[in-house]
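Support reply, case 0932

Customer input (verbatim):
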Amino acid sequence: MRYDGNAVKAWAGASQWRAWRADLARAMARSRTGCFSEGFWALTIYRIQHSLLHARPALLWLPARIVMAVVKKLFSMITHINLDPHAEIGPGMLIPHVGPIQVFPWARIGADCAIHHVCTIGAGSRPGGPVIGDHVMLGCHSCVLGPVNVGDGARIGAGAVVVHDVPPGATVVGVPARVARVHPPAVADCAPTDGGMR
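Our regenerated output:
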């Protein structure tokens, strides 16, 4: 399966199975360790838990939810990657490095995004969570806090703390984060090959 960051959102739709396949394709294309990376396995656990949240009848799926909760807890203790199953994470997510990553339950992250190590998404003193667009790159040691909107194609610089909205295509740096420059919309991770995912 070839990865196309521009087509992945429409291809996956609401399917966690297709989103997982997109995660796998991107990990194989862009991560040194591919499907053996801790980030990919964290996403696998997240996709399963997220699917089980909506599985009906709820009582029938309760044992599976308990098992996955234990698996996730053990995995988080070892890797310090904690992706809450109530968060919304789009297809084609890339987590290339192990390390402390916290995604809170009220966060919404778009398609074809990348989260580097030591990131926090969703915490904050104000109620509500962030809405992160498509093709967004979050640098290491960055935070997106509170009810902010991060536009498509934005880049959050290393060490940046985002507490205000970020326009599409912007690169932000600093504490608190400010716009350093605005660039054209992000280009897909890999050039389209056959019109979409297969």
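We compared this against your earlier run and they match. Two observations from our side: Confidence is low (pLDDT under 50) at residues 188-196. The chain is about 25% helix and 20% strand. Please reopen the case if you see a mismatch on your end.
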